[in-house]
# Entry
Amino acid sequence: MGRYIAISTATGDFYELPADTFKSLKEFNKEISALPSVPSRKEFLSLARKARLSPSVSRLFPLPDQEHSFIADRKTSVSITDLTLNLTSNCNLRCVYCWNDHGKYSNWRFLEKHRASSEGKPKDSRMSVSTALKAVDILVKYRGKDKDLVVDFYGGEPLLNLETLRATVDYCRSNQSKWKVNFHFLLATNGTLLTPEIAGELISKGVQIAVSIDGPEFVHDNNRPFTNRGGSFATITGNLKKMPPAVMKRLVGRTTVTPFFPDMVKLYENLRNLGFERIELFESEDACHKISPRQETSFFSTDESYRLLCKTYEKLALRYIADVVKGNLNYSKTFFNRFFKLMQRLYYNHEVSGGCPAAKGQIAVGIEGKIYPCTSFLGVKEFELGDVVRGIDKGKFGAFIEKINKRFDYCRQDCELFSLCRSTGSCLNVNYFFNGDPAMPHKRSCSLFAEKLSLAAASLAILSEKIPHRLEELFGFDPVGRRGNKLY
# Structure
């Protein structure tokens, strides 16, 4: 506590600084970030003197080659590495924070406002095998030079459409040699239908499986009841108890944290006690709609609950540090963990983006075959980018990229973390529904991202001191950890 850690975004080096030097460096960074272009060496030194930075300190923080990055960031060419297939709109749970409107998706409450004409709900609530395979063909066609491709199975509850899931994995595996690519599969499931047989089969085919379970029984059953309002905890834990150790070791336990029970350390311990080695905790995130008064208990939407969230993240970071030092936690056990990804990207001096990668390497396909930037834009007419029959409409795609590229202008002017984030620190869909513009940052989300980034930097600094010889082992660079694209 009370230490001041600064990171060079050009070199990736960490430095502990005196308080007054750190304050001057923050002012210096703010001045640099506000400039319309990268300053010359003379301008750089002049700004350093203005901020009262000594030459010895300013030399530690050279400027990265940002102009090249700006050009790359603003490109509109279609290059996709990550495909989300929304296998079904059906779900057997009614989670209190569900951002896809309880498995319906397609933003049905916004149909009249956002669609040019009401087309009605699709007749079949499951994606056909044919649609899924055509979507894979789209991914392969627009992959550019990338060899690692990610297919993410989503719902509703995706295991309600196991036929299409299996067929998609088999299709990818049987063709990847011909296409000269490597496929990686992600599955998010509520766990109610995940038998040992299904889990073993999918894992043997290379599917990474995340099981959502929100804590002790009373917490989970409050957050994630069945459609009849009965608790789902007993069903899920019953399935987990039957898992062979080799299968259980590969599963990811994922907890969504809400104000109802915000203690992340206890939620982390709960996942451990259930037998998970691989874990992720993340706060409930509202997308697709604004929060109504009755939903405030499910989201950290008030100032008081937001402050509580920041405090509980700090406690969780301290617990992570302790477990890492003891050798109980490493990157392989946090494959889906976004906090560890922040540390990983800081460690490898990569761009650290808080913004979502919608259309910047990622697309989502709805059950009817229409293409969108991501799942939370499903059904919003103005964000349709094509369909699996005709492919991606390059005109619509380019227009979307131009629209969201405005975020660079918004963020460059106001954000001292721009050189690290290079994007809005918030979901583009949240930006859209709260601000009416997918490029306009959602300030609360950006503030939370800055809080997490500070904790990640502090954690990495502490670990660099305590276990410097184990850092490579801890993170073990893995490109799939970024879901196949640079922004995740």
Observations:
- Confidence is low (pLDDT under 50) at residues 106-120, 479-488.
- The CA atoms of residues 40 and 350 lie 24 Å apart.
- The first strand starts at residue 5 and ends at 7.
